[in-house]
Amino acid sequence: MGKARDGGEPETSESELLLFGGPLRYDMGWSQHANAFLELNFRAMVRRLPSLLASSFRLAWQADRWAARTVLAAETGRGLAQAVNLLAVNTILARLFADGTVEERLRGAAPALVTIAAVMLVSTLLRAASTYATGRLEPKVERVATELYLERAAAVELSAIEDDGFHKLLDTAKYGAQSARRMISYSARVVNALISLVAAAGVLTVLHPALLPLLVTMTLPSAWSSLTIARRRYTSFHAWVQHARAGYLIGSLLIEPEAAPEIRVHGVGPFLLRHFRSMSETAEAEQARLARLAARTGLYAAVWTGLATVATYATLGGLLLGGAMALSVAGTAVIAIRTGSASLDTLVLEVNSLHEEALFVGDMQRLYVEAAKRAIPEGGDPLPEDPREIRVENVTFTYPGKATRPALSEVTLTVPLGKIVALVGENGSGKTTLVKLLAGLYAPDRGRIMWDDVDAAGADRSQLAERIAMVAQDFKRWPFTARVNMAIGRPSAPLTEERLATSVAEAGAQDVVEDLPRGLDTLLGRGFSGGHELSGGQWQRLGIARAAYRRGRVLIVDEPTAALDARAELEVFEKIRALAGAGQTVVLITHRLASVRHADLVHVLDQGRLVESGTPDELLATGGVYAELYQLQAEQFAAKVPAPKAG
Ligand SMILES: Nc1ncnc2c1ncn2[C@@H]1O[C@H](COP(=O)(O)OP(=O)(O)OP(=O)(O)O)[C@@H](O)[C@H]1O
Description:
This protein is of the alpha/beta class. A six-stranded mixed β-sheet has the order 6-7-8-3-9-10, sandwiched between helices. Helix 2 (31-38) packs antiparallel against helix 9, helix 9 (211-255) packs parallel to helix 12 and helix 16 packs across helix 18. A hairpin with a 2-residue loop joins strand 4 and strand 5 (454-455). The protein has three domains: 14-65 and 137-187 and 208-373, ABC transporter transmembrane region fold (Up-down Bundle), CATH 1.20.1560; 380-467 and 555-638, 3-Layer(aba) Sandwich (Rossmann fold); 476-551, no CATH class. The chain has 22 helices and ten strands. The structure holds adenosine-5'-triphosphate (ATP). Residues 162, 399, 403, 407, 425, 427-433 line the site of adenosine-5'-triphosphate. Keywords: ATP-binding, Membrane, Nucleotide-binding, Transmembrane, Transmembrane helix.
């Protein structure tokens, strides 16, 4: 299995290639952004801080204005309270070290003491307000970001969903919503730390100009170490995200009900487990590498901080001994240095965390942009309500990516409306691809698909989808009730019992529904308590009922009878004929050529090309590919059925 190279990128071994059919690739456009991060230094981070805070505030504002305002006000107030506190401490020390009796000095310090008490009270109240508002804000921010993520992801073209690169972005971007949530409290703490740091720095500068640079020197090492560690973590995350996904996939395959029988009968369990362990171990090695580097970086930083602290206190001592600083001032300086370095530490840590989270939010924002580019276009030419025919003209289509030959080449055919049109051909001849193009799921590379005289390429996609109902080969078995499994065919339509009953009858699925323990309210899905599992054939009927419920102008059925027994198959074709009789166009893909005999028109595809078109009788008479396939199937039934024995 893959071993971590020094650079932290996973290598791919032969067994991974075997499992995933190719090396895991990281050549997606968006990895450029990760490289951009690698060039970031502390200065760039500080420069980006205002925009980070602003984007965090914008997200918060979008989610809950009241809470956003409260957090900002409370944290600013708390920062200011610390500043006032420091000034009051300075006054107290100055009064205590001043000339006069103890009583006079205490009386002098009293107002400042009262101020500190009041400020502490206000600060405590502000903290409570901030805690409440942040707690209320965070889940809302996460929800808003997640909703946007899901909404954009659901609106992209099918080709984007099938694209490895886009999938990687979807994978990394999903962490963005949680990061956006965390950015809220980091931003609040940054605002707070910034203000109290400015207060401490101001006090130190007034006390002695040499103290401020020393404070900075003390805190720089931890800034450097946190930034270095975060940068390594982020680069590693990007390089390893695909590996983690593959590991997760293997893990989930092991517990997936669909895979369970084969895992047990073919003994796939130990095989998958071995790969899971091996992949996890590689990922663990990467984690260990990061931890080792983090420990080393932390040690260097600690040594540097220690030396800087010694230098700071030595300077303070020198100033005291040399008479350049009064004892009361030195006392304030010590407190200001402690407060200042604590604020600077917090600031560095929080800015760093903010920055790290912002990178993930950045991935999410890149997804938003990429998804918008690859979104199904809105608007377009209106499609005829009741077109006479759909014409496929010289259509060529190659799947993006690694396809070596076009799935469809120069295909020209017609789909007259209100008829049953069958697509026939051997496996891989391009039938499913053709119906996906008809449904607008892919666009042709060359050629056009005309709905009467409107080119589907420029047509309103929602209108196109509106007119199509589809039972795909691998149609979705939704883990919902039987009722929802049908009504989901047209979620926008009001759900009525009458429409459901008609669809069930049109699909001949009455028996399936009657056998369900709780009728239409039965939950279909083994993984849930009370869930009921249907057989493949029963599911197929429900799939057809769903398409019937949709009432699209064009019904596309891809292998509708693959899982049906002989009697059910006849019945389903009867039903499909009835749907066409009622005016619906049916585009039927099937290998059962006996059933194709009832089609009005048959198109035969071979290796992506249209080789024959005509009525079933015409094609049989011509003696071409269709006739040959038909003959092959007919021969299988030619053997005589032995007569039952007498007596
Ligand atoms: N999503 C995809 N990405 C890349 N290539 C694909 C994809 N789907 C199908 N292909 C390829 O396109 C060609 C045509 O496939 P298609 O599914 O259209 O054939 P088909 O005639 O429907 O086959 P079958 O009878 O087995 O269902 C095949 O070579 C197949 O490997």
